[in-house]
Amino acid sequence: MTDLWVERTGPRRYTGHSSRGAQVLVGSEDVEGVFTPGELMKIALAACSGMSSDQPLARRLGDDYRATVRVSGAADREKEIYPRLDEKLELDLSGLSEDEKARLLVVVNRAIDAVCTVGRTLKSGTTVTFEVDDVST
To answer: Sorted alphabetically, which Pfam families does this protein's record hold (predicted)?
Structure first.
């Protein structure tokens, strides 16, 4: 399993790390050049949907198909949640008949519903635990 952690690099600014060597800059909306935690959650959802639909789309559209997955959703600041996230997969389907398009939509939705771990987790909810570890000793 990949280890993940964030380290504070300044006021409301962190760097996220993985044991595989990846890094991402995280901070509040008023900090330039960073993602907010909510933005990262949305990007994770969009990337998961894209990756989950990649093979079925490549089989039907070719290995070099272009895709963009957009995700949006405003935060409810009173409750501090995102009550709704909307995803939109943008594809060029001009080479498909109407029947082929309809079948593709079914296959893509099934693939995402079956294997997108991020989407499945957000839809079902999850238990989150938190603890403070005193490392001073």
So the answer is: OsmC
Residue 99 CB partners (closer than 8 Å, separation 6+): none
Domain 36-124 maps to which CATH number in 3.40.50.300, 3.30.300.20, 2.120.10.80, 3.75.10.10? 3.30.300.20
pLDDT tens-place string over residues 24-53: 999 999 999 999 999 999 999 999 999 999
Which pLDDT does position 137 carry in this prediction?
77
